[in-house]
Amino acid sequence: MSALPLPTRRDESWRYGDLDALARVWPVDAAERIVVSAGETFSRIIVQDAASSEVAIRHIEITIGRDATAIVHILNTGGDYGRIAVDVTLEEGAHFELGGAILGSGTQTLEIVTTVNHAHPNATSNQIVRSVLAGRATGSYLGKVMVARDAQKTDAGQSVKAMLLDRTATANAKPELEIYADDVKCAHGATVGELDKQALFYLASRGLPPPQAKALMLQAFIAGAFAKIADDAERERVETAAIAALEKLL
Amino acid sequence: MLKIDNLTNEIDGKAILKGLSLSINAGEIHAIMGPNGAGKSTLAYTLGGRPGYDVTGGTAEMDGANLLEMAPHERAAAGLFLGFQYPVEIPGVSNLQFLRESLNSQRRARAEAPLSGGEFIKLAKEKAALLGMDMEMLKRPVNVGFSGGEKKRAEMVQMGILDPKLAILDETDSGLDIDALKIVGAGINTIMRKPDRAVLLITHYQRLLDYVKPDFVHVLADGRITRTGGAELALELEREGYRELAA
Ligand SMILES: Nc1ncnc2c1ncn2[C@@H]1O[C@H](COP(=O)(O)OP(=O)(O)OP(=O)(O)O)[C@@H](O)[C@H]1O
Ligand SMILES: [Mg+2]
């Protein structure tokens, strides 16, 4: 069996990737396949906090059965290059929920890449991704939503926001829609911003040192990414890891 | 307490404060009045250390320490409080969380023990009650969705919790209804009218001064203090306006 060729920048889903880093670990493991049976709920939390020189490539394919739900949460913060790809196919009435945070600094390249295939009617999906990038880090979200011709009543949302702590950091946000049905609701928004200087001065004027003031605002900024983790202890674990990762950026 | 001498500054290269001098002793309440655009808020922000408010000359000392050398959070820990003309909304950050962290940062900077969660909540409840503010509002994000008057009242709750030595209150009276004005006035007196405290009130109207009686009233025009008097000066200004005065 011949190994798959290394992707190139012409491959849409790798256009922002660190292909030199990828070459160090190529070929990577095949995608993990998950099938969620009709009516079931599946949840997965991925905390990617590999050591700084490592390359961490993950790929998951999920088929969500009729009226079933898959909930995926991602904290993507470790390694030289950290990429988490999730490909989802929804059956009728299924729901997919993604909450992700990309927290990078130095020269890290971190990505969350999703394709959500609404192949059947009445399915819903919601994706929230928050990125905080410092130094010369690059954080990317590429999210393709496809709605097939007979996938009427699809409701697909994508909310992507990035915060740059340094002008040298880069955020790429590419929500992408391919819609062939006519009775669908697809809301997507992407913003890239910086911390509000007025708010930082306001907090400082109350006695908060700048790193603490920034940490408070950034915690608020990424809070939406993990709000839907149902288990309190799990949510706290991920939030604590996220806060620790944020503090490293400041 | 505060000694400002011949202070000059620039915003985006434009001179705003043009040699401002002002001294405030412990136990005193001073009011500054003056036309729109005179530089009143600029003075407040400059003393608070807001980025972009570049000091080009003069000095400002609080209790003998050079304010101008300190970072904004250090000025707060040294006892300075700024009541904002336009309090800033900060989505997602709760009042209680940020105030507790702020107070404890100040306390650590002064080598005082931080307050526990319980101690802090007790303090916050007391100050909220003093200003007639519902504790539920303090659980909400900082100033988000607060009405103009609620923001001003929240500023005073913050002042009560942080217990500064010197408060510079920039148009704290604007946006307050008649009853709120009375409550806020009484709150300022309770929190700040003490022998070791001082207040600089920036205002356009006499009505706040009916409740918080100033020891001195200054007119700030074109970046300088152009006249100083007692409480009666505010009444005179209300009658005559600034134009008469400049003549
Ligand atoms: N960021 C800024 N950039 C440029 N000019 C500024 C800036 N901030 C303030 N100014 C100018 O500085 C001058 C003084 O403004 P300031 O806000 O201090 O006035 P004020 O006395 O507080 O007025 P008001 O009574 O209307 O509140 C004004 O001419 C204003 O336009
Ligand atoms: Mg003003």
From TrEMBL, chain A:
Which residue range or ranges hold the SUF system FeS cluster assembly SufBD core domain? 33-221
Q: Show the stretches that span the lipid bilayer.
A: none
* Pfam name, any one: SUFBD_core
**In terms of domain of life, where is this protein from?**
Bacteria
InterPro entries in the cross-refs: Fe-S_cluster_assembly_SufBD, SUF_FeS_clus_asmbl_SufBD_core, SUF_FeS_clus_asmbl_SufBD_sf
GO:BP terms for this protein? iron-sulfur cluster assembly
Q: Which PANTHER family match?
A: PROTEIN ABCI7, CHLOROPLASTIC
Protein's name according to its UniProt entry: Fe-S cluster assembly protein SufD
Q: Which organism is it from?
A: Sphingobium boeckii
Automatic annotation (TrEMBL), chain B:
Question: In the UniProt record, does the keyword ATP-binding occur?
Answer: yes
All copies of domain ABC transporter, residue ranges = 2-247
List keywords of the entry alphabetically.
Answer: ATP-binding, Nucleotide-binding
What is a single molecular function from GO for this protein?
ATP binding
Q: Which family does it belong to?
A: Belongs to the ABC transporter superfamily. Ycf16 family.
What's the protein name?
Fe-S cluster assembly ATP-binding protein
Provide the species name.
Answer: Sphingobium boeckii
